[in-house]
Specification:
The chain has helices at residues 15-22, 73-81, 85-102, 129-136, 142-147, 225-234, 253-260, 274-287, 300-307, 309-325; strands spanning 34-36, 49-54, 59-64, 70-71, 118-124, 150-161, 167-172, 178-181, 187-191, 200-202, 218-222, 239-242, 265-269, 290-291. By secondary structure, it is of the alpha+beta class. It has three domains: 10-102, DNA Primase, Chain A (Alpha-Beta Complex); 115-205, no CATH class; 207-327, Dna Topoisomerase Vi A Subunit, Chain: A, domain 2 (3-Layer(aba) Sandwich), CATH 3.40.1360. The strands form three sheets. Strands 5, 6, 7, 8, 9 and 10 form a six-stranded antiparallel beta sheet that branches. A hairpin with an 8-residue loop joins strand 9 and strand 10 (200-202). The N and C termini lie far apart (70 Å).
């Protein structure tokens, strides 16, 4: 039997090549962050998969918000082909050797960290008729917006510093820009409902609605602060609500275990689509939390917009009662 020795070991292969090759990237990774359509979700219409340089470890990683998958270059190959680490290593080595037979250019490059755009400035403005029309579509009043510290923005500025020290500023000024704030006035998210490819800009970590909890009997975890406000509008006397940063960002395990001791029951109510259902199932698997598939519309706020408060409350009440009391 004749055996051949591999020319490379897994540690010899540039991590950047793994991302570039298996994701078929159109640009070389040299320290910048990029965002692409999810390779794990064929239904992804808006880029939701991030490939970014982890500045703490000096290596690239991925996070796919559509599927919830994340990790380094080997994890990417394991998830793409549903194989073990050992199988992924064999595949990467083989594919890299085949690649080198036809490509002689150097693959290893010095990674220079590119600063990410961050919100550096903003200006709150007064509410106008456009704002009123938009939010009242979901039966969300100015009182609810004020209660949850939502404010309209005149503009916001995003800045980043290039490796050569040059600072780039981008100012966004238009209608329908809203800032989500903590009670102390700290901005944690910007919402742009009329910008389909970038509706949210995260500024900081925050469990939405947590400062408004008053200690009712039951808790609903919704997928967004808009759904949270829509749920509050329904007027359930014994149920309150919170929301994580997004349905793809799970609440910290320690926090979930803490609040489980405070409520008779906690139910998850996310969007009625594949990512939402997968996220709800993850809460069930990890924390034992039951969830509701509310199929009237994709999400709760859209249901209120399309069908009105009374119809949504009537149908949702049936599902909640079945979950809480078996009725």
């Amino acid at each position: 039997m004749i055996s051949t020795k591999n020319l490379y070991e897994i540690g010899d292969i540039p991590q950047t090549w793994v991302f570039e090759h298996y994701l078929r990237l159109q640009e070389k990774l040299v320290g910048q962050d990029i965002k692409i359509l999810s390779v794990f979700n064929a239904k992804d219409k808006v880029p939701s998969m991030c490939i970014y340089l982890d500045a703490n470890h000096g290596e690239y990683r991925f996070k796919d918000f559509s599927s919830g998958l994340q990790g380094g270059h080997m994890k990417l190959v394991m998830d793409l082909y549903n194989i073990t680490y050992s199988q992924a290593a064999v595949k990467v080595i083989h594919d890299y050797e085949e690649y080198k037979k036809h490509n002689t250019t150097a693959d290893k490059v010095e990674l220079v960290h590119h600063d990410r755009f961050k919100v550096t400035d903003y200006q709150i403005r007064h509410w106008n008729n456009l704002d009123q029309s938009y939010w009242l579509n979901y039966s969300i009043s100015s009182g609810l917006l004020e209660y949850y510290n939502v404010a309209p923005l005149e503009y916001f500025t995003m800045s980043k510093e290039e490796p050569d020290g040059k600072v780039i500023d981008i100012v966004t000024k238009r209608n329908y820009i809203y800032g989500y704030f903590r009670k102390d006035g700290t901005l944690f998210k910007i919402y742009l409902p009329k910008t389909p490819d970038k509706k949210f800009i995260k500024v900081g970590n925050y469990i939405q609605g947590v400062e408004q909890l008053v200690g009712k009997e039951y808790l609903i975890i919704t997928s967004s602060i808009k759904d949270l406000m829509a749920f509050t509008r329904l007027g359930f006397d014994n149920i309150e609500s919170i929301a994580p940063d997004s349905e793809n960002s799970m609440l910290p395990g320690s926090f979930v275990e803490k609040i489980k001791k405070k409520y008779k029951k906690i139910i998850v109510l996310f969007d009625n689509d594949d990512p939402g259902i997968k996220s709800m199932a993850a809460y069930k698997s990890k924390h034992g939390l039951d969830y509701i598939k509310f199929e009237l519309e994709k999400d709760l706020s859209d249901a209120v917009k399309a069908h009105g408060v009374e119809k949504v409350k009537k149908q949702l009440s049936k599902l909640i009662n079945m979950n809480l009391y078996g009725l």
